[in-house]
Amino acid sequence: QEFVTVLVRDPKIQKEDSWHSYIDYEIFIHTNSICFTRKTSCVRRRFREFVWLRQRLQSNAVLIQLPELPSKTPFFNMNNPHHVDHRRQGLQEFLEKILQDALLLSDSRLHLFLQTQLSPEDMEACVSGQTKYSVADAIHSFASLNRRFPIEDEERKKGKNDADSDSESSSSGLGPSDDSISCGCKASPASEE
């Protein structure tokens, strides 16, 4: 039986400059679904990136009523643990519902959002073929940069030479992958904005 576990956790305040701060959240994915290039991944995203994702998914799946994001309230206080946790729960519920829809799972933007740290602009460029790398390349590159143990890179290189049949050949780059090595998540601020 296929499963996709998604956790939105570990909210952290990030400083953009001396006047502006924002909160980002860790998104952890663990799955055995053939829809995912990586079986385990971990990225950090901020609220406005979730807003971007919802807008893009809605424009590509016009007939589907997407779940709502937690409301963006003018009274949101990032120093109030209740406000932050309420938003975190809402973001997790949003992703849980999205990941249950097969049509939405076929959108490459969703996979880039969940499994890379690319900015929305870079995700759009990748999906529209304006980058040197494919969706699968972007996901594998991000995972390689975030491994906990350097030896895993050596094993991956050795395995790639031994069996080139594992490479993705689907046009979306989201085909099956033999990936059982988990990657670590580094809590680095999102510098894409």
UniProtKB/TrEMBL annotation:
Residues 3-120 form the PX domain. It is found in: Cytoplasm; Endomembrane system; Endosome. InterPro entries: PX_dom, PX_dom_sf, SNX10/11. It comes from Platysteira castanea. One of its GO terms (cellular component) is endosome. Residues 150-193 are annotated as: Disordered. Keywords: Cytoplasm, Endosome, Lipid-binding, Membrane, Protein transport, Transport. Its main location: cytoplasm. Belongs to the sorting nexin family. The keyword Membrane applies. Residues 150-163 have a biased composition (Basic and acidic residues). It is a peripheral membrane protein. GO terms for molecular function: phosphatidylinositol phosphate binding. This is SNX10 protein. GO terms for biological process: cilium assembly; intracellular protein transport; vesicle organization. Residues 168-182 have a biased composition (Low complexity).
